[in-house]
Amino acid sequence: MNQPNSRPTSELMLRETASQTAGPYVHIGLALAAAGNPTRDEEIWNEMARDGAEGERIEVVGTVIDGNGDLVRDAFIEAWQADAKGEYQREFDLKKPFNSFGRTATTFDHGSEWSLKTIKPGPVAHASGQPQAPHINLAIFARGVNIHLQTRLYFEDEAEANGKCPVLTRIESPTRRQTLIARREEIDGKVRYRLDIRLQGEGETVFFDF
Amino acid sequence: MQEENKRFVERDRNWHPPAYAPGYKTSVARSPQQALVSMQKPTVSELSGPDFRHLRMGPHDNDLLLNFTQGQGLPQGERIIMFGRVVDQFGKPVPHTLVEMWQANAGGRYRHKNDRYLAPLDPHFGGVGRTLTDEQGWYRFRTIKPGPYPWPNDMNSWRPSHIHVSVMGPSISTRLITQMYFEGDPLIPLCPIVNTIKDRDAVETMIGRLDMARSTPMDCLAYRFDLVVRGELQTFFENQ
Questions:
Q1: What contacts B19, CB < 8 A, 6 or more positions away?
Q2: A64: closest CA of chain B, how far (Å)
Q3: B235 in contact with A at a CB cutoff of 8 Å?
Q4: Nearest CA to A117 among A184, A69, A49?
Q5: Along the 240 residues of chain B, how does pLDDT read in single tens digits?
Q6: What pTM was computed for the model?
Q7: Which residues of chain B from 68 to 127 reach within 8 Å of chain A, CB to CB?
């Protein structure tokens, strides 16, 4: 049987399986509650920090907006961030108070906002020696998105660290750097950061290749 | 930190579908117009990723014949095993990685509130599965073969039978979502989503093959679907 993925197209390497859009029903597979379906005992979802998590408790929220300025109401987002000490906790375990990995989604409900309940990450080391500013890596999947879009969320109240971040400053256009910076809000004494992700056009979010 | 010495083979973005592929209409307003910003030196943030060995799974999480009603009744449709191996571009198995899948039922209807296709739901089918690859990179699911369904793109567009497949791999750099199609399906070359990919060999990487040897006689057929994630390299001679 010819397994195309097992056939090297060069003498040296296999080709990566090609990407396809996650489609309109990604939520039934990867965000069961958001699809209104029964959930399993353990789900990977948006409560990255729970009671006992070390660090500043924050909520991170936003919308996803298409090239017409309309809300994308069927996006699925994955987050990867360091803990308060700037270290990645690779072992995902719901018994731990904090997980570096989380998932969220926009739907036709809740104002079509995504939300992550987490802690503010600490600065992460960089090979250059200059620490990276605190940030959360985000991957955006949706109907109409053929290969997921990779971006980062930075924090408006870390202006000094942002100004020196070796990744953020790699973006040639200072105007475009602003598209990654979440705005701080305080609601009933709780800290919330907001970042709207614009897929296309005016204020288009910076997306990375890495 | 171990990630500092690691990198992944660059993604070939001509092999993957482009963001803007106007035959698939939704991509027109959902594709960035600006160039991607390439990180010449991905950091630990990009080179690390979650390990799901401590995620507690249910006994039927990879068995869609049983996992919606816990065997109270069986779903309608072609019983199949879907299995394969996750390897990287150097052929190295990717053990203990999370593979997730979701799909429509035998009639092409999804269990999602926005799917209003007139084909009925199956009371015994949910359409979601997950598993970890074993030590050698193998995974398996048991399910029913999904039906094609119509969707509003062209005047008369139908998706081929497909199962959405999500794989994490060793880091967020290898993260991939794709779709498995079924060998010989005549809808494959007609599909605007398949055709976002220009290279026919790239389309072939998404086609599950009938594997009679792994079928269970008098019970279910089997389709093999191998997944290849980006190759992991050690970096040598850096910084000096």
A1: A145, A146, A147, A149, B27, B30, B31, B32
A2: 10
A3: no
A4: A49
A5: 467 688 999 999 999 999 999 999 999 999 999 999 999 889 999 999 999 999 999 999 999 999 999 889 999 999 999 999 999 999 999 999 999 999 999 999 999 989 999 999 999 999 999 999 999 999 999 999 999 999 999 999 999 999 999 999 999 999 999 999 999 999 999 999 999 999 999 999 999 999 999 999 999 999 999 999 999 998 777 665
A6: 0.96
A7: 87-91, 100-102, 104, 110-115, 126-127
